[in-house]
């Protein structure tokens, strides 16, 4: 046994050291890239791709855990466009943008097994996925990054100016003047978050907040060239699953709860461990999602909130927890016991309150709520929160080594 694992480790180490670190892959915005790690013989527990971007920020791109068959893509930079082959570890990223440039590291069962380098350049004809949606607003969430790449302009000779128009306020964002040293100036709130590509005129703003919403107009040599519209919405809340039982022990009713303030037009997507099962439009959000027992205790359910700019997913509700015999969780039992204690104490108090005049006056002066209204007994609810497994949630911060 010891020999087998030794030789496997040896073979993998050999494969890793023998396979050269791949050279730099060059792509254009909108392209798809694939990185295939060297073949391996060990059985897979976890496979993870991390990304180190141009500013040396390290984030988790995608993680696959074979124990619970879970796929985790925590960062908006990779959500919806990234996939992993669960047999070979091959990474695929579609709709590339410049922010995908940098180093990609493949880790198998926690050990580094390959490194790749990617350089994404702006497309010449402005064929950048986002710019294709001409006239449509760019929809982003707080914390994300946006790039406006102007089309149809040859070259500025005297000036380039980006202005931001929000309501009645027009402010300058960035200015390029070859006579200045340095030639690029950023203004006000954009000073530390904006960058300008001097050759293409592309404006990039990172760490977006709601106040950055509005119009962005680009002027070249004093002539207005193009306007982009940006809508930045609040970061999506993380939804939670609530379970309700009925008369049928083989059926549970799930609700997807979330704090929807500041959000509209969100979709709820229900999935089990293999696929998406149902999408609920905003007007259907108070409907239950009905789950029938399938006798696969490892199956789990999640609900996700989806906006045009992002997606957040609840913790996993495993089938084995959803169909637990007892309808009452520990929380509900504790709630009932506390209610009973409150009722008993209340009763004893009320007895003294009626019979002992000193106590009566004392209480009457201190607790104005006793004048008229009896204290309401604590309510217990039939709805029980499902004990959810701690799993690599979609909002887990990127971890270091
Ligand atoms: C998930 O749901 C689909 C469609 O109902 C079903 O075919 C599949 O078996 C389910 N997955 C699991 C693991 O139960």
From TrEMBL:
SUPFAM superfamilies: Immunoglobulin. Residues 121-141, 380-401 are annotated as: Disordered. The chain crosses the membrane at residues 332-353. Residues 130-141 have a biased composition (Basic and acidic residues). Keywords: Membrane, Signal, Transmembrane, Transmembrane helix. Residues 239-314 form the Ig-like domain. Residues 1-23 form the signal peptide. InterPro entries: Ig-like_dom, Ig-like_dom_sf, Ig-like_fold, Ig_sub. This is Ig-like domain-containing protein. It comes from Danionella cerebrum.
